[in-house]
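PROTOCOL LOG
Step 1. Enter all chains and additional molecules of the complex.
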Amino acid sequence: MMTRMLSNRMNILYLLVAGFLALLPFVYDSRSLLILLSQVFIFAVLAMSYDILLGYTGIVSFGHAMFFGIGAYTVGVFMKRFEPETSYFLLAVLVTILLTAVVSYFVGLLTLRLKSHFYAMLTMAFAGLFLVLAEKWRTVTYGNDGFTFRVPDFLKDRTDFYLICLGSMVIVFILLRRFTNSPLGRVLQAIRENEQRTESLGYSVLQYKIIASVVSGVIAGIAGILYSVSLRFVNTSVFTMDITLDALLMTIIGGVGTLVGAIIGAGIIEFSHHWLTELAKVHWIFERWIIFFGIIYILAVMFFPMGIVGSLQKLKFRKKKKLEVSVESEAVSQGDS
Amino acid sequence: MDVLINLSLNGLATGMLIFLLAAGLTLIFGLMDVLNFAHGGLFAWGAYSGIWIYSSTGSFFIGIIGAILTGMILGIVTERWIIKPVYGNHVQQILITLGLMLVLSEMLKVVWGPNQISAVTPDYLSGSWEFGGIIIIKYRVFIIAVGLAVFLAVQYLLKKTKIGLVVRAGVMNKEMVQSLGVNIQRVFMFVFMIGAGMAALGGMLLGPYSGVIYADMGMEFAILAFIVVVIGGMGSFTGSVMAAILVGLSGSFMAYYVPDLALAANMLLMAVVLIFRPQGLFGAKG
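Step 2. Run joint prediction.
Step 3. Record the structure below.
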């Protein structure tokens, strides 16, 4: 009862925040803030998809950039080769979903039976193969330099695009929350907690892991689409390890296994990225802002090992427990008297 | 024929450099169950400090000693301050050592500037020998010799000395060793120091081999080293040397015969090995 009320209250909070963000461009007109926030939403989608693997199934993947890159390149190639029209854009989205689903299915089939570290390294290898493919298949990808492309009219306006990114994030959040709370999602969490036990209960662990990796892959592909549309440019950097690491760090800093955490993590990383670069004008040391980034990671692990949302939840849990204990002891003392 | 010999020597030299990096990685993983992503950072610090000492003192030998010492000191600091708090949690280890990796490679740019630094071969190691049309570059032979010497030394340490016995037993069963009254913390630190020193030596030797050193070389070689560790089997010292040579040779031959695939050579090699032998070439089963 208590938890349901609490979650209702959280839902109202989410609604308020989403509503505020949706109205923001109409009250506060700052181009750079809009672009930055769009970027946050895009990476939040990526981080949430990563959280399905890391947080809900307990799989550490180093190849997540693979799906992000497939989405980015698919939409780029479609817009460059064909006309930048809505119909072709929708076709590109469909192709992305299909491609990422097929690729994540087969990569999952090949790799998911390996133990954690081997899995991580093998996914990195597969992502590396895609990076090489993007560099070498010049007739389609224009190699390392990448290419610019035009986008359909409805994506041109910054405010509209901002709203589309926000909408995508909200929809993905709702869908994934539904997914993780479904019986299937529960099995995934059981796998995270104890793989052997889940297997001995009769669940085919491999199948469930593949399902998680397909869901996660498809959503990462969608994030890739949004990313390359926001830049109207795509190059091989979308396949690099940096993208995977960003997703990993966002998920962990926000709190593993909480979708909201992934969103908050994306916000923190993107904003601190932005601010630390800005600070370069103040002092030369901030040109090397990655140092501070590294220190933040180290401190985050040392002092917030469960991430921001995870730590908050633990705090709340403790408080609740204390409350219950005090109520109980009161009851006991009343019974005595 | 001469092409074959050249390619082999080249591959062996690269393989030895990767071995110096991968050996420490695999020992640390095998013993401490720690995935150290900052290992490449120690490699790069070894290269920068070693080349710096070499160019300011003029002695290559002192440069090598300086590189190893730098690596060892950084290794101890890493073990004490960064890794100790996160024993037993892989995700946290990955994050914290990646953070350290970022700090280490950016600090290089703060200390020595963002541009790449050129490194020259000392006079007595530059040049080449010629045997009936086959040209053998001296420095490559030197790297192979140093790599072999380090391999044999560590092998001796592991197989014939008491500390090696403790380390090998620790790789098998950490709790057992601890319950027998061995201070496993001190063994950890020792292994970490050795591993870091080897990585730094590898970085230093790479300088004159490739001609330049740059701050991002740590990450680049760390990925190669991880591939080697995975191919060889995690925690297997013999596996890591075999796999390093395999990766070095396949890299140099692919670069010559199928340059288009060279970039993917290591990845393909790893994928093939893992699909058929999920535990790596020399890894224990299960």
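Step 4. Note key features.
Chain A touches chain B at residues 54, 60, 110-111, 113-118, 121-122, 124-126, 128-129, 132, 135-136, 241, 245, 248-249, 252, 256, 285, 288, 290-291, 293-298, 300-302, 305 (CB under 8 Å).
The longest helix of chain A spans residues 307-336.
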